[in-house]
Design goal:
globular; Glutaredoxin; mainly alpha; about 5% strand; two-stranded antiparallel ribbon; about 525 residues; Growth Hormone, Chain: A; single chain
């Protein structure tokens, strides 16, 4: 039988794995991680919807921002989970650690399905929701590093990019799975029943997914690299201190964070989550249609994770990751303008022919209602500050002084600003093409990332060292992107202002990565 060495040929080890065992390693790690991402993305997919369930009613924009902030909180805690579970993974093994993370993740997600709403228990509802999101994020902080390391430490040296790229597909597949379950439930139950109680079903299904994942991971054996270190008594006594107390390794952590992961994070969330948010909240494309377009783009683009992982084994990790960041920084703005053009041409025409200007004093206490109404309708506006002037709004040639909501809504409608996108005017093929292009950037930055991070750090502190920058980058730079971008749109009145943040971060990563990142594809994993 053809055998493939589990680790580099110069590692002086006799451990080998068969092709069948290698496939089981990839399947077990990838499938379990798919379910983890499914759990985590359920909330993200329903973030807009959750605003009315778990937060006070009366201000839709505030509820949306609170919902997105809660989503971001799950990402903010991930670095803490990275340190906790990274340390456990370096001390006690890769398998035990990522088995624990999936149990914690699955249970905390299932509990969201039985949470009471704000109408039922008041302020306790958002408190419990935030608590479960924090637990989810804590577990996620230990999941990715364990799965990526486990696969890489079983893979032949010249196929690490290809083998670990299967792990990289799991985020998108999990996202796609969550969207599919949500759409199925809404279709079978109807909108009214789904809003009343059906939203709980996707979360409760996590229990079934949890049992499958635990069973698969229980059948796997420990990483050969970890077993070798353990047999030779080379395990780290204090992985956290060695990872972040040593200046040389700490420098690698910062280089990985700013020169690769930060850009990868914003490209990822701009290409998936923010794209869905833009279609639904700015362009006002119907939920089912917008979700279907994004889902199709994910299906088409997902194989590219494996392609770019394979390509990185040939040309290197660095050029592919940085090329994806550069393309994103240069083309996000025209792509999103294209989404407006093909997704809601009536809104584009109204913006061009009938601009909206808000005139207000510098400290305006009565502007929030108008700003919230404009933002809720996806209407861009320009603010003009005039001292000692009452609040006024001009819509083309029409001037209104301190209009109430019904008056403003009627004026916007008469000026051609649609309340929602006309499904018959949505150019679906062109929308799909633009979304696939965004997805291609995602696969470029993420496909080779697992191999790059595993190769960058020494084996004895690998779990701890790679997990923290990965989750800092994805948790802080990526997890808060929907909130930061939404706030920029609200603050400026410019529907494209939310792109300034990912464009800036992606450009920063290109500069830092080009100068400081070294190629890793030929490095020995046993060092």
């Amino acid at each position: 039988m053809t055998m493939a060495t589990a680790i580099d040929t110069d590692a002086r080890t006799t451990h080998t794995t068969t092709p069948k065992e290698e496939r089981r390693v990839i399947l077990g790690s990838s499938l379990g991680t798919v379910f983890e991402w499914y759990d985590f993305y359920l909330y993200g997919s329903l973030a807009v919807f959750f605003g009315s369930l778990f937060f006070p009613k009366g201000n839709e924009t505030a509820a949306l921002l609170a919902s997105l902030a809660t989503f971001g909180a799950g990402f903010a805690i991930r670095p803490v989970g990275a340190i906790i579970f990274g340390r456990l993974g370096d001390l006690f093994g890769r398998k035990k650690t990522f088995l624990a993370t999936i149990v914690i993740m699955g249970l905390s997600t299932a509990l969201v399905g039985v949470l009471p709403t704000y109408e039922q228990v008041g302020i306790l509802a958002p408190i419990l929701l935030v608590l479960l999101r924090l637990i989810q994020g804590l577990a996620m902080g230990g999941e990715y590093g364990g799965a990526a390391i486990y696969v890489a430490e079983h893979a032949p040296a010249k196929k690490r990019g290809f083998r670990t790229s299967w792990i990289q597909t799991t985020g998108t597949i999990g996202f796609l799975l969550s969207l599919g379950v949500i759409l199925t439930c809404r279709s079978l139950l109807g909108e009214e029943e789904f809003r009343a109680w059906g939203w709980r079903i996707p979360f409760l299904l996590s229990l079934v997914l949890l049992m499958v994942s635990v069973y698969i991971r229980m059948t796997l054996s420990e990483s050969p690299v970890f077993l070798k270190m353990k047999a030779e008594h080379k395990l780290s006594a204090n992985p956290v201190k060695e990872s972040f107390g040593d200046s040389k390794n700490l420098r690698l952590v910062f280089i990985a964070l700013l020169g690769a992961i930060a850009g990868q994070a914003v490209v990822w969330y701009t290409g998936q989550f923010y794209a869905l948010f833009f279609l639904q909240s700015i362009l006002k494309i119907e939920f089912g249609l917008s979700t279907m377009l994004v889902a199709l783009a994910l299906v088409i683009g997902t194989p590219l994770f494996v392609f770019f992982g394979y390509l990185s084994d040939k040309v290197g990790r660095k050029p592919i990751i940085l090329a994806g960041c550069l393309l994103g920084a240069l083309t996000f703005m025209p792509i999103y303008k294209g989404l407006m053009h093909y997704g809601n041409p009536a809104l584009e025409a109204a913006i061009a022919t009938t601009p909206v200007i808000l005139t207000a004093p510098e400290n305006c206490n009565n502007c929030d209602a108008i700003r919230n109404e404009l933002s809720a309708r996806g209407v861009p506006y320009r603010t003009v500050i005039e001292a000692n002037n009452s609040v006024a709004i001009s819509i083309g040639a029409l001037n209104l002084t301190a209009p109430d909501k019904p008056t403003l809504t009627a004026a916007l409608a008469s000026a051609g600003y649609p309340g929602a996108a006309d499904p018959t005017q949505v150019n679906k093929p062109m929308m799909l093409l633009l979304l696939v292009l965004l997805m291609t950037y995602v696969t470029m930055v993420y496909g080779p990332m697992a191999a790059f991070l595993v190769e960058l750090f020494p084996a004895r502190i690998r779990y701890t060292s790679m997990s923290l920058p990965y989750h800092l980058g994805n948790g802080c730079f990526g997890g808060f992107l929907p909130l930061i971008s939404s706030w920029l749109v609200l603050w400026t009145g410019n529907v494209y202002a939310g792109l300034y943040y990912p464009i800036g971060v992606a450009a920063l990563t290109c500069i830092v990565g080009f100068i400081y990142i070294r190629e890793t594809k030929n490095l020995d994993l046993n060092r």
